[in-house]
Design a protein that fits this description.
Radius of gyration: 38 Å
Structural class: alpha/beta
Helix content: 40-55%
Number of strands: 27
Strand order of the largest sheet: 13-23-24-25-21-26-27
Number of helices: 29
Length: about 850
């Protein structure tokens, strides 16, 4: 084997511990990559692949990026699912024999980034860990950028999948050997990054010790987490992964929350997708519920509102508590304006805390924290004047402006600090005597230089002489060639240029040493003082996180009030009864697009005489909108929001299920109909009498008789076995007969006005059924050619009258007729008639003429 160079030997030794990462190996001003890492990175990043001496007779593939451009390149690797290990020089080059000492200071993965430029302000960046078997699983969740850490114990892999997909994690961990598990397979279809973590980390005893040590005050014991075997292991393994990856003590993760998904309204993946809560059907953010109601003004508020929409609550007391606070801000408009004006001055405190703990916060971040704390004090004072029976006092009492921290930052950090922490210029004058002394020496350097220059000019008589400085030679005396004859003997030549010579003197070097030492000492001292202030702030992490939570709540609550005011929403009456009564309800998203043109509709469901609504009517008439709008109104009510209606009484639902539209999963061999049936199977498996089900066109993916039969049987099963509140839009008019057999199944239709061959959609829902789907008329609105429409009408008439379709009646242009039966001229004339484009009078005249021709034909043939 070829002997390796010392540097490459060092590289390979470090790489041994980071085989699953792309190693960014610091060499001077570059991060270099070698071997397989270089091959991958050069392709992903689009940079040149070169080579470097590997041994004394061979070369290794190599590529590199400037260290200061890491923020440009790193996201591209993370987006492709790669981990990156950052290897820095930690040794002193002046004292190193051989390669400078290096070590990995951090591993960056999609779920462990904390830098602002990698994150979306209004969204969480979750990493999730799953561990369990059979029907019981632990799911641990963390957002490192905010310090949120949660764990849940979940039964059933379907529920695990729905819970994880709800979070949309940037990174998901599962144990090695989990590759073939159904959870992993399903998540792999929707998530960008799944990593396999060594099974040795999934150990109950190890996890219990780690979590108990980190989370003080007996949190693990008080939560009873030790009783949940899989949940505790999932949390412990995730925490160890984060510590190993970030190489940090994770001080800002100060609390752990054990939660139950059953405390929230359950929304499976297809329901979230169909209702377009956070993203639309194309994956964008436009025309979603979140975009429609979001008027938050802080990053923390935006994240919290998103969480509320993803997790509507079921606890009636908590719903009413949120409602009451929203109502306060809805009524107290002056207070709301003042509060929101103050909230606009708030920075993202959760992520500021993370940066401070990780040591990546700069002086400007400290000023942002100071501003936010001062604003917190102003908000607390403002709200204190309005405390009543609205429950707002709980939030007010939890807010702590931390005047000591504000004073410390204000005294220490100057108003316009430098961006780099090690470049000086961050400590306020008067805070530290030594800083002031060194700064004066540094600042007086200009005066001293001017004095030296003036004195040398006088001594030498060279008026053009000047003192200069560069990083290579330090301070020097520059003399033009025309004056070289006047140079004193004690000048020492240092550099020759085209038009001048540069010299130094012992006195000048002594001055240089004094100035540069003062500058270096000043920079080091300022950095040390900044670190002391930062470490002092870290002591208040828990209080700062509590403040951040209070500010986010106030932002969301006031935002919902503003949304209600702007869009004419009303406060719903939320109860624990089963009835849902919505008067003149509106779809929040569609209404925003249509404005006053939107047609509101009522809903009254849940009592024994009406648990299933069968809704018929043509496409484009508004059936799907009606289904979705009622689901969204209920969801809004259960996050504590006002709702788009004239009046609403909402009985709390435990789940909302939807089966809407058509989709397939061809990559996994699943047709549209298979996906449809899987979604229905999930509904009938998990729905309860307290659930809301919305179904749109179930059974349309197979033959008509199969589809009708399945739709009929599914409806009967929901009615008799589940008794869930159900809105079922269908074109199967056969289902309307169910009303005759079951008291709680009622027929409704979306109104249509017929005008000749045209229709006008009323977009209003009426009681009773319709026996027509108006498919041909809708096809006409869509722009199908008249030839197709005419033929469709002819075939439709044949079906409706129970007669065989006559293929001779086709009138498609440029296609010759094929006569399969003997016809006479009168029949041919009838065949050519377009009965949809003649008036009744013309029809009678044509009929009279045809009768005369038939009689003549009979006479000519000798018939009586």
């Amino acid at each position: 084997m070829t002997e390796m160079t010392p540097m490459m030997r060092q590289y390979l030794k470090i790489k041994e511990d980071y085989q699953d990462c792309i190693l960014f190996y610091r060499l001077g001003d570059f991060y270099e990559m070698f071997f397989e890492d270089a091959l991958i990175a050069s392709k992903v990043l689009g940079i040149v692949l070169t080579s470097r001496q590997y041994g004394y007779a061979s070369k290794a593939p190599m590529c590199g990026i400037p260290y200061h451009s890491i923020d440009t390149y790193l996201p591209k690797l993370l987006k492709k699912g790669h981990k990156v290990a950052i290897c820095e020089q930690i040794g002193d080059p002046n004292n190193s024999k051989g390669p400078v000492e290096r070590q990995v200071v951090r591993v960056i993965t999609p779920g462990t980034v904390i830098e602002d430029n990698y994150l979306v302000a209004g969204e969480n960046n979750y990493i999730v860990n799953i561990y369990g078997k059979e029907q019981e699983y632990g799911v641990a969740i963390c957002d490192l950028s905010t310090g949120e850490f949660k764990v849940a114990n979940i039964r059933g892999y379907d529920n695990v999948i729905n819970e994880v997909l709800k979070l949309k994690p940037a990174e998901c961990l599962v144990p090695e050997g989990f590759e073939s598990h159904i959870i992993t397979k399903k998540l792999a279809e929707a998530l960008p990054t799944i990593y396999y973590f060594n099974r040795g980390h999934y150990n109950y005893k190890k996890s219990l010790e780690l979590l108990t040590k980190h989370f003080q005050d007996g949190q693990i014991q008080s939560l009873g987490l030790y009783n949940y075997y899989f949940a505790l292991i999932a949390a412990g393994a995730l925490f160890e992964y984060l510590q190993t990856t970030l190489k940090n003590t994770l001080t800002h993760i100060s609390t752990i929350e054990f939660y139950s998904p059953e405390a929230f309204m359950m929304l499976d993946y297809s329901t979230r997708k169909n209702l377009e809560l956070i993203t639309n059907l194309n994956g964008g953010k436009e025309n979603t519920l979140l975009e429609t109601i979001d008027t938050t003004v802080t990053a923390g508020g935006a994240r919290l509102l998103r969480q509320w929409i993803e997790q509507p609550i079921k606890n009636l007391g908590e719903i009413i508590s949120r409602q009451t606070k929203v109502e306060l801000f809805y009524k107290e408009k002056v207070l709301t304006l003042e509060l929101r004006s103050l909230l606009k001055e708030v920075y993202d405190m959760e992520r500021l805390i993370s940066k401070i703990v990780y040591g990546s916060a700069d002086a400007k971040d400290m000023l942002a924290l100071k501003t936010t704390l001062k604003t917190t004090g102003s908000i607390k004072e403002t709200l204190s004047r309005h405390v009543g029976s609205d429950g707002l006092h709980i939030i007010i009492d939890s807010m702590n402006p931390l005047e000591k921290v504000v004073s410390l930052i204000d005294d220490c950090i100057c108003d316009t600090p430098a961006s780099g922490l090690k470049d000086g210029g961050i400590i306020r004058e008067g805070f530290n005597e030594e800083v002031d002394k060194l700064r004066n020496a540094k600042n007086n350097a200009k005066t001293l230089i001017a004095n030296i220059e003036r004195e040398e000019k006088e001594k030498t008589g060279i008026k053009s002489l000047k003192v200069g400085y560069n990083k290579v030679f330090g301070y020097y005396l520059e003399v033009t060639r025309a004056n070289l004859s006047q140079i004193p003997g004690h000048y020492i030549r240092k550099q020759t240029l085209a038009n001048c010579e540069r010299y130094i003197t012992p006195e000048l070097k002594e001055f240089e040493s004094l100035i540069l030492d003062a500058e270096d000492k000043l920079k080091n001292l300022e950095y040390q003082l900044f670190q002391q202030v930062r470490n002092e702030v870290i002591k208040y992490v828990s209080v700062l996180k509590q403040n951040a939570n209070c500010l986010a709540q106030l932002d969301v609550l006031s935002s919902l009030a503003v949304t209600a005011e702007n869009n004419n929403y009303v406060k719903p009456l939320v109860t624990n009864c089963s009835n849902i009564n919505i008067q003149k309800g509106r779809h929040p998203v569609v209404e925003k697009a249509l404005g006053h043109l939107f047609v509101p509709n009522n809903l009254n469901i849940g009592h024994e005489n009406n648990t299933i609504m069968l809704i018929t009517g043509p496409n484009m008439a508004g059936k799907s909108t009606y289904l979705r709008q009622n689901a969204l109104i209920i969801l809004l009510a259960q996050i504590g929001s006002f709702v788009p209606a004239e009046k609403a009484e909402i009985g709390v639902v435990d789940r909302i299920f939807s089966r809407i539209g058509s989709s397939d999963n061809l990559a996994y061999g699943q047709s549209t109909f298979m996906v449809e049936m899987q979604e229905v199977a999930n509904i009938v498996k998990y729905a309860t009498s307290n659930s809301l089900i919305i179904l749109d066109e179930v059974g349309r993916g197979t033959s008509t008789y199969d589809g009708v039969s399945l739709a009929w049987a599914i409806t009967e099963y929901i009615y008799s076995k589940i008794q869930a509140k159900t809105l079922f839009a269908t074109h199967y008019h056969e289902l309307t007969r169910l009303q005759e057999y079951y008291q709680g199944i009622k027929n409704y239709n979306v109104g249509v006005i017929e005008k000749g061959e045209d229709i006008i959609f009323q977009h209003a829902v009426f009681e009773g059924s319709t026996d027509k789907s108006y498919g041909v008329q809708v096809a006409k609105l869509a722009g199908l050619p008249h030839t197709i429409l005419d033929r469709a009408r002819t075939i439709l008439n044949s079906f409706e009258n129970g007669v065989q379709v006559d293929i001779n009646s086709r009138s498609i242009e440029k296609v010759p007729k094929v006569s399969l039966v003997q016809t006479n001229p009168v029949e041919d004339e009838i065949d050519k008639l377009n009965i949809y484009e003649i008036t009744p009078i013309d029809a009678l005249n044509i009929l009279s003429e045809l009768q005369n021709r038939i009689r003549k034909l009979r006479n000519d043939s000798g018939e009586a």
